[in-house]
Specification:
43% of the residues lie in helices and 20% in strands. The protein has helices at 16-25, 48-51, 100-106, 112-122, 164-168, 210-227, 243-255, 270-282, 293-307, 312-330, 342-345, 350-359, 361-373, 375-389, 401-409, 426-435, 439-442, 449-452, 455-465, 470-485, and strands at residues 2-9, 33-37, 42-45, 60-66, 78-80, 83-92, 124-133, 136-141, 150-153, 157-161, 176-177, 182-187, 190-195, 235-238, 259-266, 286-291, 335-337, 393-395. The strands form three sheets. The chain has a seven-stranded antiparallel sheet with strand order 3-2-4-1-10-9-11. Strands 5-6-7-8-12-13 form a six-stranded antiparallel sheet. Strands 16-15-14-17-18 form a five-stranded parallel sheet, sandwiched between helices. Helix 12 packs antiparallel against helix 13. It is globular.
Length: 489
């Protein structure tokens, strides 16, 4: 696990120092090794200072900040036929004999553009990669966009990185999220993007009964969790006690012998007692971590720098994720499972019910689909960067290619109905009932993490104390935090 950078100097000058500056800008803790490479030379060092002495004499340079999570993880870049490569991610199911990066590198040949497109189209996993060839880069990202990746260019550089700040640090201000499921060829002319694999919104929903759909979803979820847990001695689950995290916790216990639930909240929140009760029901240990308004104020600047944008909603969600990942790291739990993606896939938000009432099934399916293809920007990038900072790898079992296809093909009526106060995510609740979860969990209404933890209220109080709106408070905090944390911001 780590973070990627890659740069192509448009004027064919050496890009080694530029790549080093991008690595320096990354906001990470406990990096074990840093590596840079041209198409034919690799340098891996324990410190950035030592790495800076290397000169590759190449306009095309890639770099990696490495932190090992599993025993099979190794420092990168890797050498392949007349090229070098970095693969940051996981392939499911796990190959027990080779690391994920070795499996990827082993498929590369002379026709790498076609090979990488086929790889994205065929392989289940969450990953980003960059390949350095003579004169160009090849860059790609998994179809869901679980691992963050950004790109941009100016008059001098075309570049990619796992964090926006690495691009800002070399003078690229107009930064975009790299489209999931795409491959890019990066040369002296800039980016050429090619689609490899993306979700498709079928014109007509699949005809299936609730009973059959729930059984199919149960099997898909069981397979997804099982594939994300092999060879892990212990795992954390970000746990609210709600439907999504309870399903993940229940299935994690089935496939891993050492599961710890991590629940974070401000003081005096009713969801904490519920989480304790569900943990007891599941016979799983739970770590309860209680915070106060002062803790929110302390966590906000760094959380915003990790999120890399002054968004109040993302900040309200990001702070609990920050705390959960921090606690997992303190317990030496380097993998954390979470329930992200469920609300988009199975219509967990009230706005979908409102849309169904007002616009009907067809437009509501379109709205849900747009949210599904945008999950990487609304959720995954935020949460993965926060966890990555703490050296914790976030795994999201709800988001596999098969589950996304299953969910997008379902009729809206198997997810939500137009009755007043109807529970949402109906098919998921039915699958949870089939798994054996209690009615208390299955029927519990959704409460968003920013409200259930009390973080949003705390942020509003902090803003009010400064006589600012919440947006003004978040923007001001972010602006000051960037000055203090991000190089050359």
């Amino acid at each position: 696990m780590g973070a990627i950078v890659g740069v192509r100097h448009k004027k064919d000058e050496d890009a080694t120092e530029t790549a080093w500056g991008m690595l320096q800008a990354l906001l990470l803790k406990n990096v074990e090794n840093f590596g840079i490479a041209s198409s034919d030379t690799i340098s891996i060092e324990r410190s950035l200072q030592t790495l800076r002495k290397r000169r590759l004499a190449s306009p095309t340079v890639i770099g990696y900040a490495f932190s090992g999570i599993t025993e099979r993880d190794r420092p990168q870049p890797l050498r392949t036929i007349d090229a070098t490569a970095i693969f940051d991610g996981r392939i499911y199911p796990t190959n027990r004999h080779f690391s994920d990066a070795q499996v990827f590198a082993g498929r590369l040949n002379q026709n790498r553009e076609d090979v990488t497109k086929a790889f994205i189209a065929e392989v289940e996993g969450d990953f980003a990669f960059v390949i350095a060839e003579p004169g160009r880069l090849i860059v790609g990202r998994d179809s869901a966009g679980i691992r963050p990746l950004y790109y941009g260019e100016n008059s001098v550089f075309s570049a990619v990185a796992s964090e926006r700040k690495a691009l800002w640090n070399i003078g690229i201000e107009n930064v975009h999220s790299f489209p999931p499921g795409y491959v890019a060829i990066v040369d002296q002319f800039g980016f050429r993007l090619c689609r490899a694999r993306r979700p498709v919104n079928s014109r007509l929903p699949r005809q299936v009964t609730m009973e059959a759909a729930a059984r199919e979803l149960q099997a898909l979820l069981e397979r997804s969790v099982e594939e994300r847990l092999p060879s892990l001695g212990a795992v954390a689950v970000a746990f609210s006690g709600g439907l999504d995290s309870s399903i993940i916790a229940f299935l994690s216990k089935k496939f891993c012998s050492n599961v710890t639930l991590i629940h974070v909240s401000l003081k005096n929140q009713p969801e904490t007692e519920h989480a304790k009760a569900v943990a007891e029901e599941l016979s799983l240990p739970i770590r309860i971590c209680i915070y106060d308004e002062n803790d929110v104020s302390k966590a906000l600047p760094l959380a915003l720098c990790l999120i890399e944008e002054p968004d109040p909603i993302k900040a309200s969600i990001g702070i609990p994720i920050y705390w959960a990942a921090e606690q997992a790291a303190k317990m030496s739990l380097h993998v954390m499972l979470a329930g992200q993606g469920s609300d988009e896939l199975f219509a967990g938000y009230k706005r979908y019910v409102d849309s169904l009432v007002r616009w009907g099934s067809e437009k509501t399916r379109d709205t849900i689909f747009r949210d599904i293809v945008g999950m990487h920007e609304s959720n995954f990038e935020r949460d993965f960067k926060i966890c990555n900072f703490h050296g914790v790898e976030l795994r999201i079992p709800f988001v596999t290619h098969q589950i996304v296809k299953f969910a997008t093909d379902l009729p809206v009526e198997l997810k939500i109905q137009t009755f007043e106060n109807t529970p949402r995510k109906l098919v998921l609740r039915e699958a949870a009932r089939n798994l054996g979860l209690s009615n208390e969990v299955v029927n519990r209404p959704k409460k968003a993490v920013q409200y259930s933890t009390g973080v949003t209220k705390a942020l509003r109080r902090l803003a009010k104390e400064k006589r600012l709106s919440l947006k003004e408070y978040i923007r001001g905090t972010y602006r000051e935090a960037r000055k203090g944390i991000v190089p050359d911001a």
